[in-house]
UniProtKB/TrEMBL annotation:
This is RNA methyltransferase. The keyword Acetylation does not apply. One of its GO terms (cellular component) is cytosol. It comes from Teretinema zuelzerae. One of its GO terms (biological process) is RNA processing.
Length: 251
């Protein structure tokens, strides 16, 4: 939930707030927790007091529900400044090329819960760079995404591009561009043989309903699918991303 008056975003969920408090306490502007969770946040309360920032043990969970607009607060809510996702500059893309980086790109992944789950998997496997588009149907960093990421937002850097298609086109000759597509001929097991140790890789995951856009599909160097029995056409995008992220972590 965004608080337009204060330009804040509510971060809730025990693991999400605990990771925020441990790794980036300076981001917290206000902190609220119930009696059960008070013992976990003593250190950050001291930090907030030193910064003259408010914190409070709430009398009832209804106050947390009001702050977060969610019943899934898990007893704690931190208010942070509304996140500003940095734009991916050409210099950063060139640095990724030199570093042989492994990068995940989301092409209009529209569900905030899916986005959060992808961030969690990326953090788990150590893939620390994700790029999202500025498209209207691309999920952004929200209260729900933070909660589902279970602390992953503190370990992954999210960048923005005008669109996934524009990024894939701009990275021609700089990174190997792999699209996840259930209609592809190559399978996930082929990925390691496709990627040389001297090149960076972009893996692009498509929209939940329509998959990769036509522009992205035609601009990728290759397409890869996750093979199944064929009884179900494809996995949920967050599940599919987890498998691709695992493979990326091994390259």
């Amino acid at each position: 939930m965004k608080n337009k008056q204060y330009r804040e975003l509510a971060v809730c969920g025990f693991e999400a707030v605990r990771a925020l408090a441990e790794k980036h306490p300076e981001k917290i502007q206000r902190l609220f927790f119930n009696k059960d969770k008070a013992r976990y946040f003593g250190d950050v309360c001291k930090t907030l007091a030193a910064r003259k920032k408010p914190y409070k043990m709430v009398e009832s969970d209804e106050e947390l529900e009001k702050l977060t607009q969610s019943v899934h607060h898990q007893g704690v809510a931190a208010m942070i400044e509304e996140p500003v996702v940095p734009r991916l500059e050409m210099g950063t893309l060139e640095m990724w090329q030199r570093e042989k980086a492994r990068v995940l790109v989301l092409d209009r992944v529209g569900n905030a819960n899916n986005f959060g789950a992808i961030v969690r998997s990326a953090a788990f496997f150590g893939i620390t760079r994700i790029v999202i588009g500025e498209d209207d149907d691309q999920a952004q960093i929200t209260t729900s995404a933070y909660r589902i990421a279970q602390g992953g937002m503190e370990l992954v850097q999210v960048y923005r591009a005008s669109s996934a298609a524009a990024l894939v086109q701009a990275s021609a000759g700089k990174m190997l561009r792999i699209g996840a597509d259930h209609r592809a001929k190559r399978t996930l097991s082929d990925l390691r043989g496709m990627v040389g140790g001297s090149q960076g890789v972009l893996v692009v995951m498509g929209n939940e309903e329509s998959g990769l856009s036509g522009e992205v599909r035609s601009s990728c160097d290759d397409l890869v699918k996750i093979p199944g029995t064929g009884e179900i056409e494809s996995l949920n995008v967050a599940q599919a991303a987890t498998l691709f992220l695992y493979e990326l972590s091994l390259l």
